[in-house]
Amino acid sequence: MGPFLRYLPRPIQRPMPDSAVQVRGLTKAFRKKPVLCGVDLDLPAGALSVLIGRSGAGKSTLLRCLNGLETPDAGRLEVAGVRLHFPEDADDEQKDQAIRSRTGMVFQQFHLFPHKTILENLLLAPQVAHGRSDTERLLSECGALLEKVGLAFHADHYPSQLSGGQQQRAAIARALATRPSLMLYDEPTSALDPQLGQEVLQVMVRLKREGRTQVLVTHDLNFARAYADWAVFLEDGIAVEQGPARRVFGRPRDARTQAYVRGLK
User: Fold this and answer.
1) Neighbour-count burial of 13, counting CB atoms closer than 10 A to its CB (0-12 exposed, 13-18 middle, 19+ buried)
2) Distance of alpha carbon 162 from alpha carbon 143, whole angstroms
3) What is the pTM for the complete model shown?
């Protein structure tokens, strides 16, 4: 555990609120190879949830299904109040757009536009995808977001002028600029060295304290143990175990979860 994580106060455990995400019987295959095999799970609102498991367990595919980047073959989803049934809603653009407008996605790579400043990167999504024309207010909001992620003095810089950790924090601010109900992260620190990764994790902790609903795919069990509210362990495309993170990491009930947690200590 790095120096930042070591000195942050531990979160207070509290009862989980209502679900922000519900998944029932979700399946997905690529070229007839099953990746999700009937996933059932509930992720609480206002909490930091982590999806853990070995590589190939289906974590990233599940995350991409939650914001419409992948279309499930079968099952039901409720994300931020939008309900979808598959395969019936597979081509429902209105529902698909509704989910994307309510979720913010942060990837392993930063995907910032290199020819635009950091501030311009933040402005694009609200203006293009959401049609916002209140430029003065939007500039104020984006400035506040850059301050939130510690980049207030880098608004006019280009991505190439920032470190990897700074670029990933800018990507988080860009996702927040659309006012999402749900933030999704797909291993956002995997391409960063530990010190820069901690800069990104620090932002998630701040958002957690604000009550922001967040779902994180991660292999960083030190961070997950210390700061997650809810944990889901996936293996072979199935949600093997889920519940309050303290219990899943401290007293896992399923033998497969026990072996995974024990093997990474």
Assistant:
1) exposed
2) 17
3) 0.89
Length of the chain: 265
> Tokens representing 141?
């909001």
Q: Each residue of 190-210: pLDDT tens digit?
A: 888 888 899 999 999 999 999
Q: Which two tokens stand for residue 179?
A: 């006012």
81, 158 contact by CB (below 8 A): no
**Per-residue pLDDT tens digits for 35-55:** 999 999 999 999 999 999 999
- Cβ–Cβ under 8 Å, residues 16 and 230: yes
* Token digits of residue 103: 């979720």
Phi-psi map region of 132: left, alpha, beta (phi>0 left; psi -120 to 50 alpha): beta
The residue to which tokens 């670029």 are assigned: 167
pLDDT tens digits, 205-230: 999 999 999 999 999 998 999 999 99
The tokens of 82 are what? Answer: 């939008």
